[in-house]
From TrEMBL:
GO terms for cellular component: cytosol. PROSITE patterns: TATD_2, TATD_3. Gene3D superfamilies: Metal-dependent hydrolases (3.20.20.140). It comes from Scheffersomyces spartinae. It holds the Pfam family TatD_DNase. This is Uncharacterized protein.
Amino acid sequence: MLITASSIKESKEHFDLVKAHPEIFYSTAGVHPCTVAKEFYAPVPLYDTKLATLKDIIEEGATKGYIKAIGEIGLDYDRLHYTPKEQQLEAFERQLQLAALLKHLHLPLFLHMRAACDDFIRILKPFIDRGDIVGGVIHSFTGSLEELTKLLPLGLFFSVNGCSLKTQENLETVKHIPINRLMIETDAPWCEIRKSHAGYHYILRYPNIYYPETAINTMEHNTTETDTDPAKVLTSNKVIAYTKGKLDDNLPFYSVKKEKFNDVVALGSRYEEDTGTSLDHWKYPLVKSRNEPVNVGHVAQVVCGIHGFTTEEEIKSFIDTVYDNSCQAFNVQ
């Protein structure tokens, strides 16, 4: 799983997460266009000092195997209220110069592009043409078909999530991304696939080939008069949380409101202590209305639906291809 950094502080802090979950978590290092003003210009411009710090973080992280890409860097003209255009342009070029300086580390770019296609290409293409960049991915791609056509010659990968699947125009654009250049992602906790999105109707009810049926152990726990809400415990094999958790229609998990999450986990620990029974992943529910990494299968369902892939062979071939694309791009074995 790739954790994306948006600031120098996050780039360093992610080391602890990756270290705690070796070969499961990896990270990026870089400054997101929307945080450029705060990072490099407030209260005064500090490019040289900040870039030197970022360089040290990237070198250390790459040496330790923590960092797999430089980013999230790029341009976002949809949210200029966070960082003005000129500041974004300078930060993008300066971070690309840093990537070129560190190209011996063989780190790809993790790129962000919103409503800035022409400037994005103008700044990035010379680095690619000189061989200063070892590849990369335009993540959370929401561009038009015209923009896709302009971007494809750069030789980059494109990654899609719920934000890429909102409208019929989005779906048509995604269909034109060559599968050997495609990745899928969630961008959790953002960019969920909502019921109002054009791609939502492709999502299947659980169980299905993307989320095979999960064997659930029968667990019983007798409530007592001392049990208080939200202590509604698991009963038989109909898994309902201790709170008013609800099994998801499209996933083999239950979800609770954010404010009850800690209560549920604490009650799960108590249940395990009282019964000697492990709740495994049932101990940690999904949070309602928050995107989660497990939803990546829904992105796969929508993209397969767009392409008309319905057989088990077609679906598995697609999933294998996009998975291999990710491993190749980020040099993960």
